[in-house]
Amino acid sequence: xxxxxxxxxxxxxxxxxxxxxxxxxxxxxxxxxxxxxxxxxxxxxxxxxxxxxxxxxxxxxxxxxxxxxxxxxxxxxxxxxxxxxxxxxxxxxxxxxxxxxxxxxxxxxxxxxxxxxxxxxxxxxxxxxxxxxxxxxxxxxxxxxxxxxxxxxxxxxxxxxxxxxxxxxxxxxxxxxxxxxxxxxxxxxxxxxxxxxxxxxxxxxxxxxxxxxxxxxxxxxxxxxxxxxxxxxx
Amino acid sequence: xxxxxxxxxxxxxxxxxxxxxxxxxxxxxxxxxxxxxxxxxxxxxxxxxxxxxxxxxxxxxxxxxxxxxxxxxxxxxxxxxxxxxxxxxxxxxxxxxxxxxxxxxxxxxxxxxxxxxxxxxxxxxxxxxxxxxxxxxxxxxxxxxxxxxxxxxxxxxxxxxxxxxxxxxxxxxxxxxxxxxxxxxxxxxxxxxxxxxxxxxxxxxxxxxxxxxxxxxxxxxxxxxxxxxxxxxxxxxxxxxxxxxxxxxxxxxxxxxxxxxxxxxxxxxxxxxxxxxxxxxxxxxxxxxxxxxxxxxxxxxxxxxxxxxxxxxxxxxxxxxxxxxxxxxxxxxxxxxxxxxxxxxxxxxxxxxxxxxxxxxxxxxxxxxxxxxxxxxxxxxxxxxxxxxxxxxxxxxxxxxxxxxxxxxxxxxxxxxxxxxxxxxxxxxxxxxxxxxxxxxxxxxxxxxxxxxxxxxxxxxxxxxxxxxxxxxxxxxxxxxxxxxxxxxxxxxxxxxxxxxxxxxxxxxxxxxxxxxxxxxxxxxxxxxxxxxxxxxxxxxxxxxxxxxxxxxxxxxxxxxxxxxxxxxxxxxxxxxxxxxxxxxxxxxxxxxxxxxxxxxxxxxxxxxxxxxxxxxxxxxxxxxxxxxxxxxxxxxxxxxxxxxxxxxxxxxxxxxxxxxxxxxxxxxxxxxxxxxxxxxxxxxxxxxxxxxxxxxxxxxxxxxxxxxxxxxxxxxxxxxxxxxxxxxxxxxxxxxxxxxxxxxxxxxxxxxxxxxxxxxxxxxxxxxxxxxxxxxxxxxxxxxxxxxxxxxxxxxxxxxxxxxxxxxxxxxxxxxxxxxxxxxxxxxxxxxxxxxxxxxxxxxxxxxxxxxxxxxxxxxxxxxxxxxxxxxxxxxxxxxxxxxxxxxxxxxxxxxxxxxxxxxxxxxxxxxxxxxxxxxxxxxxxxxxxxxxxxxxxxxxxxxxxxxxxxxxxxxxxxxxxxxxxxxxxxxxxxxxxxxxxxxxxxxxxxxxxxxxxxxxxxxxxxxxxxxxxx
Lengths: 234, 1016
What we know:
The complex is a heterodimer. The radius of gyration of chain A is 21 Å and the shape is globular. Chain A has helices at 2-14, 23-33, 37-41, 108-114; strands spanning 45-54, 57-66, 70-77, 80-87, 91-94, 104-105, 133-142, 145-153, 159-164, 171-180, 183-197, 201-209, 212-221. Chain A has a single domain (20-225), classed as outer membrane lipoprotein receptor (LolB), chain A, CATH 2.50.20.10. Chain A contains 4 helices and 13 strands. By secondary structure, chain A is of the alpha+beta class. By secondary structure, chain B is α+β, with helices and mostly antiparallel strands. Among the domains of chain B are: 44-380, YVTN repeat-like/Quinoprotein amine dehydrogenase (Methylamine Dehydrogenase, Chain H, 7 Propeller); 772-1007, no CATH class. Helices cover 14% and strands 31% of the residues of chain B. In chain B, strands 14, 15, 16, 17, 18 and 43 form a 6-stranded mixed sheet that branches. A 5-stranded mixed sheet of chain B has the order 60-66-65-62-63, with no helix packed on it. In chain B, a hairpin with a 6-residue loop joins strand 56 and strand 57 (706-710). The longest helix of chain B is centred in the C-terminal third of the chain and has 38 residues, at 871-908. At the A-B interface, helix 1, strand 7, strand 8, strand 11 and strand 13 of A face helix 1 and strand 63 of B.
């Protein structure tokens, strides 16, 4: 009888729902879901290959990133190659389809907005040491899925929101508030199809932004990346 | 013990058994409405605050449309308050930390139709996220003031509830960012605080005005002993009542303003028996009455704003019927000119840029206006879709038209779709005044009916928009006719109905009327003293007319059966065309609805003549409950429909015309849906403002559209509610479900059009192609979701990026195969590579992969004859298109081979030592290059150049052939012949060059010991 009561008590707690979570608890679980802090910190470089599908026309895309150094994105349409290089100090783009004949420098404010992406371990890892602050904003709806919402303000003052799935603790959506040509814009990126790659690293294989989804086909972590890639040579 | 075990068993069932899928908005995921707006006639603006350090950024509070933000001085606005109460009373930015913004809900322009709020909200990130900070029961907030001199002190003026006594009125103060509040000025349960201001040079000096006011359903009172003007010199701890120089009698509402540049100067409009303008030059201690124009003193309960220019203490603005200004500190006023275009009357908010005081934003009953010349002229912001519709109606035209009347903005109509989408210019104003019922005649497409307040109805000839007054007139046998503010004007199948306290019927479009009822109201004389209404200032605009008919519904089964609801709680039914009437209000009261509760709508089921629904609204007695009742026996007995989801007093319930278990309910705070006959309900989200004031709902009688009138967010349309009809709780339990499409017409879309969007508001058009639709029980985060289209043999013809959201997903296939591979290596994009021929009619299969699960749907694509487009035309178009398609592919293959050969030479050239061998390699390379430059544009360096080679020639003809449903022209067919010959020639030429040069190259490379593949 006594046991029955204690059992009943246990069940009644089950019905009370999940206790309020703190930002740090959620970040810890998010980092665990992504393979753990050691795994994330060990990422020195990432090379991704993927494609963008526009009603059957596939545009190959590749990205190479070296931690806290530089990143390069290449894509090719009808054999015309376009690319974008972002380094700590400078950036260049080459978009021949727009009539561009030689690389052009990236404006300083755009460069500033992309710097956070060079943090390959993810800006939630050791955010305090990095000079960022995080605030838990409670649950928010992402297309019908209730997610934890975190607001991160980087040392440079950039504001990023993370929406984290309460079951898997994967990041579902990241929103960056940016200033584009004097106008406030929200750049929203959805992530899905999380998979483990060689070395035990976890990555989203579908990344969807305003321009549509990019499906990754191959992700290599800590492979060799030729530093010449990050110079604006043709 | 036995009982305990039973209890445990039940308990386990509740908590442990697999959870049922809760049907809520997320289940319907991807089904989103079109926000029709429009911006043509905007809605009432109640509050404006701008960021003083970046005056391009402003927040606009509206009467029923939430909060809108602009960061570009009004070039565009974004709604930032979609998840919360839409009635806004006050908006305030912390000017030292402009990312901190407070919003007080519950408008305080206390007209009859004013909505209510549910507290104060704060954003710490410039409107991106909001947190509720209490004051939940205040219902109306008129002003928020932030003192940033040290830290952040917030003052909130709360007039409080309009329809009931309340202890929640007064002036509130918070010193911890809104976490806790102290009430620092309180008079009594009937008196709130209307206005507050402080001396910007010493914010400890505060001024507040208290206001005694009350509405009942049939009267309004502004004024009483509680009203007054108060001053504090210690931040609100102690107050003294100021009377010196002010009227001796009772006051009503007082609007107050202090000069930022000369804070000893204050100005007030004091409602009293003789309302006047008062000026103080000694910090509010003494006041002097000034003469003022009618515009300055009129309607003080509604026009409660007076503003002093932040830099020039002599320049004073009075937003009221129109905008008046003074250049002598308020001693005399002029009215601004109308040059530059009409400015909507009835002004409630004015924000002056403190750094450039020529620049100002004015909030009116019809939207926001911007002036750059101190109010001399204004430009209208036509991009703020916050219209306050009372009702909506539709006709059966193709495409159908939408009709509706708006608060202070007349009656309008617009098509539901058209080339380029529905924009501001597509709305046609059909009648003036405040607009309410605007209804098409059910049998005459050239006629609609509209009205302005108090039953002033008209028949409109839609061919020329001429109007003819049709309001029934009193006969000698009748009492004075009592017409509601929002008089029902309702066409039946054949008849037209209007209700005062009597029901009138017309069989000839309102040319003649027959009274078919006695007084159907309670006819309580105590509720009919509207001529005494207003309080200190008479205000009798028909807004308080009571004991009137408010809603009329003709049975869809029998036009002799008519249901009538009154604003004083009667629901009357006739089944013999008005010969006798039965009042069922007692039976409704037995279901648990207070007597006298306003019948806001009656809906007669088209599935069952005995099934009747009604919504009731008791907020005018201070009761905000959602009252919905249903009768299954023709009105004899009633039962309440309730749900913990419901918020807001109820305006309209409808039952779907196809699925009798599908209901939609509109309340003052949201749209609710039930798919199980009213047992369970959920709040609509997914692109619909969650607390919208939903005043009317129509299900189109022919199409699958659901049309919603909101009182603050304009019209919303769900163009296709078929999935609401077909989705069942059983289906929602499945992990993955692919909806079956039986037949899909092969269309290339419904509309074209090339005009650039010229601003304002554009609602787009309904989807004109049928999507692939599937249901996912949860968002898929850890696996693949893929949609592929296969032909009847299982051959893959197209893959489409798939969405992964919870609930219904929609994926659009353009009904085409994949585009051809075009020749690569040119210097420009070839747009031929982006388009593909449409598939032919036949059987196709949608294949949906979700993680490891694969589901299929087999459907039929069908041809439909169009003008100049038969099946024969389609077949020819397809055949010729495929010829071009194959030319591209052949050419691409040839150029790929050619490129590979050139690449081979380039890669190895440096290793060649002998001049002779180098010459062989160069010869081969150059011959290939000569050919290549004829095959695709290779020289063009500018996007403005137009280099056309074989690839581009094919694309031009291909593009002409493949786009749009039409038979290929003779010239297209001729060019197919010509170009296919050229492609054949090109391939041959390549082969010849290769045959001649390749053996020589291989020999040369062999001599140089360069290893290459010798495969062809």
